[in-house]
Model the fold of this input.
Amino acid sequence: MAHSRIITLTTDFGTQDGFVGAMKGVILSVNPKALIVDITHEIEAHDVYSAAFTLRNSCRSFPKGTIHLAVVDPGVGSRRKPMLLHTERYFFLGPDNGVFSFVVEEGEKVNAFELTESKYFLTPPSHTFHGRDIFGPVAGYLSLGIDPGEFGPELHDCVKISLPSPIVSKSKIEGQIIHIDRFGNLITNIDAVSVDALRTRGDVRIDVGSITLKNIAHSYSEVDEGSPLALMGSSGFLEIAVNRGNAHEKLGLKRGDRIRMELMS
Amino acid sequence: MAHSRIITLTTDFGTQDGFVGAMKGVILSVNPKALIVDITHEIEAHDVYSAAFTLRNSCRSFPKGTIHLAVVDPGVGSRRKPMLLHTERYFFLGPDNGVFSFVVEEGEKVNAFELTESKYFLTPPSHTFHGRDIFGPVAGYLSLGIDPGEFGPELHDCVKISLPSPIVSKSKIEGQIIHIDRFGNLITNIDAVSVDALRTRGDVRIDVGSITLKNIAHSYSEVDEGSPLALMGSSGFLEIAVNRGNAHEKLGLKRGDRIRMELMS
Amino acid sequence: MAHSRIITLTTDFGTQDGFVGAMKGVILSVNPKALIVDITHEIEAHDVYSAAFTLRNSCRSFPKGTIHLAVVDPGVGSRRKPMLLHTERYFFLGPDNGVFSFVVEEGEKVNAFELTESKYFLTPPSHTFHGRDIFGPVAGYLSLGIDPGEFGPELHDCVKISLPSPIVSKSKIEGQIIHIDRFGNLITNIDAVSVDALRTRGDVRIDVGSITLKNIAHSYSEVDEGSPLALMGSSGFLEIAVNRGNAHEKLGLKRGDRIRMELMS
Done:
């Protein structure tokens, strides 16, 4: 796979300090032709799970060869390893703490490398800002075409986190809310494949919080303004939304709350 | 008009989810040489009016041929049409919901097209994220030089929203506050032409909330720190500000509040 | 020094209005090949000191020749001068109000110029938005290779602000908290040189607020989760942090609070 000059950034650095700027400066010092794209810097501080979920939803839209850098790194400076993951489509750079748990497609070939070759780091790297001192410059060198194996030895065992799995039976799916987006849409862990399988057996009803929905809509506007609905969202999961409103505020539901979809009897 | 490789983005997507990143990934997948510039992603959710006003204030600073993409789209997936507007200076891409109401100059020639040619879309497009699935890729193709007429048939009737007009007479102008910026400056709908016309007839006074101003200043520092003033703002409208302070907080005024400028007797 | 096509932006414009977009549009109208990098637009309104500190921490990561634009400009339109600072490594563009006080290295040669040549401005410049009308276009021309001396006469006396100095004696250092970052880390004005000098004389203890620390850690994870620690931060100053937590919230400390490091007796 050819490398790309595109480098994306997903961090919990926020945008009020100069952290992101410093990291971009280092990347551009190594490769002035790098094309840096922000995915987000607003991951809640230290929330590795949210970073992993956000990266899953956006990384696949980028061209083959893109270098995805993710720095949500509460263990910076400890023994957690700085890592390069090389999949069939992309490069991923960040701490080995689970942040890349959702980016590998089923059956996709993956190579992982620990970043140990300090000639590709700022010297000496700080113990608190590896985004600037390790991941940034390595991203720059990678975008110049340095081979993944040059940065350090292969890693054979990476840290994984997992999405809570829905419980699927012949007549129902029990899931939960795993993410709330900026519009207040409630994203669940109930995937399209499970939903389609259940719906081939009959009409379904959905119970979540105090409401029951008897339909899966195609778009928000199929219900009246201010009314709740369920639909398959752009991330590939079932979502609960309110047409032109905020489901999170209106329904009082939060991350972790249960949702059940079952065949109507 | 030659197309440009510059694509600007104005959305209500926020920056904490990966929506903006996904959209940029799609654009760069179509045209890796596109130059993407964020105008803002902090439009309040579903606030088409604010998006239209923000776009008006910033789009004109860009070079001829720039592609302006605006996705504030509460009706996504409904019958509202995805649209391409082609003016003498720019291309505008977004939903036909009024978001481009303030970008056409008086007398400027405009062609509008409905986006129907699905070969330029991600397939199949989702019903909830046309920024990624329709507007993003079309922006990419447009920046590659595809002719506007290739994307679909001409549209002869677009949705328009309007700014509230001030009431102008020989001796006074009655207007209102239409926008509050991040500094707390209160932007009114009273335009420079009306103000100049009134001032040729004599000295004016301005009444807004509980204060009266007897002058139009040239810069904030013409009054003492913490004092209110009126001046012609960078958007071309009369603004009420507080020198080194926040007029919105200090004066307790909000969007929709009345302002009157009249000749002093 | 050769100019670069990289232009960084540090402002208090926020990201919800179109101010940043308009400024970028103007820069790209002058030089479509400019590479614009946001450092931050979230400086608190009118807070020149924070802008100066943020710029100090991030500007040095950029390649030689980078043009750093900083517009935190409460005196816009008054007699404060628009300025270009030319150091051995960088160009700095912004108001002469102290915002560049911390960017010049000790002993570095500096030339300053007042921006007076209006052919490089938007005409006529507004009195309230010099970022768009003066600094933006001048940055564009500078990135095209226009000589610094072309923009106006040399300036021999610039406004300076200073960081509060720590009080250093043989047995102790008395400093204060000068910045709080998005993670809640408390950055002090106690620099590495002073700390190293004191530590060559013996073990130290640190008193801040109600806590005492008897060690300077190398990384956050050297203490238990939720425990406070002191370490030398990525900005080169002593920081007080909480491992995987927020020191600002947990310890109830704020900007200006005192900190003392002294030899243990």
Notes: The helical segments of chain B are 19-30, 48-59, 130-143, 192-199, 247-251. The first strand of chain B starts at residue 6 and ends at 11. Chain B is about 20% helix and 30% strand.
